[in-house]
Here is the input.
Amino acid sequence: MMLEVIATSVTDARLAQAGGADRIELISGIREGGVTPSIGLIRQVLAAVTIPVHVMVRPHANTFCYDEDDKLTILADIREIRELGAAGIVFGALTPDRRVDEEVLKRVLAVSGGLSVTFHRAFDEAADLTASLRLLGQYPQIRRVLTSGGQSSVLDAVETIRQLDRLGRELSITLLAGSGLNTASLASFLRETGVSEVHMGTGVRRGSDPLQTVDPDKVRAAADIVAAESARRS
Here is the structure.
């Protein structure tokens, strides 16, 4: 089981690691749902921590539908991220009719090399979550899907997450559940859904404020809950 924590700075990344996070999702623009961080920030975070760092690749927060200029920016960013030595990228794209954009997805996978690829919460805006997951499962390079089950909070989509997680296991793709989780809700959510990976942002920040730093004590509490659930399942 894995606990992923959002970091928006080197300080966040260090505090997340100190608290026991298993992986970092590095982003900028947390209030906008995350956009691609600067090359300098990526480089500094990679130098500061030893746990895996997955980097958001999202050129802007306007839409998940990208024009050709956006696509070229995405591909250029991925090449740089790969060269810097990140463990993975977090990416997603949709067509205007809210389907997974396979054209850009194939181009992304072609330049991603050995990077682990997570399809991010663009997934939650897809017209059909089940069909989208089945489609993504056809691409072995896509290791996981970050989702809140189509709701603003994953806590309002427990049954959907349970069903998507079961399907993901059949497709050999991991469901990474996130949005709205905190240390008070985490244990019951894990028991009720059966997911093996969770993603936390505001729920492990000081004062539950997205603009405050990561709170290592909250991360430690979340990590302990994940570890306890892992032991229970074994």
Remarks:
- The longest helix spans residues 216-233.
- The radius of gyration is 16 Å.
